[in-house]
């Protein structure tokens, strides 16, 4: 007969899966819509789009401090607060953005919630995993989240293509999904840590993890900022295109994330991150030079392929989490170190888009992707410095 603790753990895992479903649905609604929303409603330039990333990413830089304000709470309670803040930002974007200034206010609110949730999501997933199966568990959760986002992408595609849905409706639905995720998290058992968590944690031992986060921060802006902007400004693609690309990426992402999780457990983080880096070089070159290859009308399909490949490779970030879990001195180090990693990541990512926008305006969009390819090569060199390590067998004391 199962013990009460085992039953409770299974219940919490189920609730966390439901949380992933609601947040996947929110992502499927929000992600294909936001960039076109900026272009369709506010008509901003590439320089303004790059500059907008500074306030959008600033909460990510400050996450270690905002998480510190809630340090007295278990991780699931921090997660509840994060998703309620996220929902407030989404509803504000939908209904209370009469001007660009108000857009920035609600975008920052959304960003605070989204970034506050990032480290605790990984920490909760690791804490609910069996020893040695952290990659598999995070891969399963990612696959569920990806599958749920498919529904969101379909709603966006059908809505904009057939019934001329408004952006307010999309943001309202996304906000309701974040509220539903908060309810699921609220029902989870708030385990208390047996070890004192630190508000700030910077250890020399974790330098390589921090460096990988710096490079991740630089790399991710290509996908989040400039890759969609190439499709919107250079190839004049509507929101329905992003919904369709999201659908394709989601369908491929379901098995990809599950396979990725097993690959991390079997082959290790070094090989996975190195392979990601090599593939990213080709993705960046495809973004930047598809039109120069003499492909004619087929050039857009190469960019579509790069966009989908980029979307899939984003999942490789879980390898950084499992790597940290393996080298951590104690489970209590995990959440504050993940928070510090996100802060360092955003120190880079909130500044690079502005300079990328200036680079685009002065030398053309190709120059942005050449720089991104160089960053991918540096990421490869960092990945090769990862040493083989064993999983920490005891994660029972991690806070959830």
TrEMBL record:
One of its GO terms (cellular component) is plasma membrane. Its main location: membrane. It is a multi-pass membrane protein. Keywords: Membrane, Transmembrane, Transmembrane helix. One of its GO terms (molecular function) is transmembrane transporter activity. It is found in: Cell membrane. Pfam families: MFS_1. The chain crosses the membrane at residues 12-30, 58-73, 78-96, 102-120, 141-163, 169-189, 210-232, 238-259, 271-290, 296-319, 340-361, 367-384. This is MFS transporter. It comes from Desulforamulus ferrireducens.
């Amino acid at each position: 007969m199962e013990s009460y603790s085992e039953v409770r753990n299974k219940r919490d895992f189920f609730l966390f899966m439901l949380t992933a479903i609601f947040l996947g649905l929110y992502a499927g609604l929000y992600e294909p819509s936001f960039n076109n929303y900026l272009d369709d409603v506010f008509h901003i330039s590439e320089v303004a789009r790059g500059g907008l990333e500074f306030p959008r990413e600033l909460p990510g830089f400050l996450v270690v401090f905002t998480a510190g304000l809630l340090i007295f709470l278990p991780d699931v309670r921090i997660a509840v607060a994060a998703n309620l803040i996220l929902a407030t930002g989404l509803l504000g974007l939908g209904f209370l953005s009469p001007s660009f200034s108000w857009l920035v206010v609600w975008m920052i609110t959304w960003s605070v919630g989204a970034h506050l949730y990032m480290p605790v999501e990984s920490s909760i997933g690791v804490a609910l995993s069996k020893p040695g199966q952290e990659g598999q568990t995070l891969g399963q959760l990612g696959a569920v989240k990806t599958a749920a986002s498919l529904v969101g992408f379909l709603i966006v595609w059908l809505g904009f293509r057939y019934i001329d849905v408004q952006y307010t409706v999309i943001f309202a639905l996304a906000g309701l999904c974040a509220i539903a995720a908060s309810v699921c998290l609220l029902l989870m058992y708030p385990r208390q840590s047996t070890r004192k968590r630190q508000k700030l944690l910077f250890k020399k031992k974790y330098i390589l993890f921090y460096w990988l986060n710096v490079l991740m921060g630089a790399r991710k802006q290509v996908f989040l900022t400039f890759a969609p902007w190439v499709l919107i400004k250079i190839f004049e693609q509507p929101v329905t295109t992003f919904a369709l690309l999201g659908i394709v990426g989601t369908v491929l992402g379901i098995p990809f994330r599950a396979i990725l999780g097993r690959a991390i457990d079997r082959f290790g983080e070094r090989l996975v991150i190195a392979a990601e880096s090599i593939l990213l070089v080709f993705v960046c070159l495809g973004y930047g030079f598809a039109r120069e290859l003499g492909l004619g009308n087929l050039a857009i399909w190469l960019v579509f392929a790069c966009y989908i490949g980029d979307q899939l490779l984003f999942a490789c970030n879980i390898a950084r989490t499992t790597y940290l879990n393996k080298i951590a001195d104690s489970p209590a180090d995990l959440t504050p170190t993940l928070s510090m990693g996100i802060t360092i990541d955003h120190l880079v990512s909130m500044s690079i888009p502005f300079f990328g926008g200036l680079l685009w305006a002065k030398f053309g969009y190709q120059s942005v992707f050449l720089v991104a390819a160089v960053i991918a090569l540096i990421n490869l060199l960092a990945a090769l410095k990862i040493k083989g390590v064993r999983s920490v067998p005891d994660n029972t004391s991690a806070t959830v």
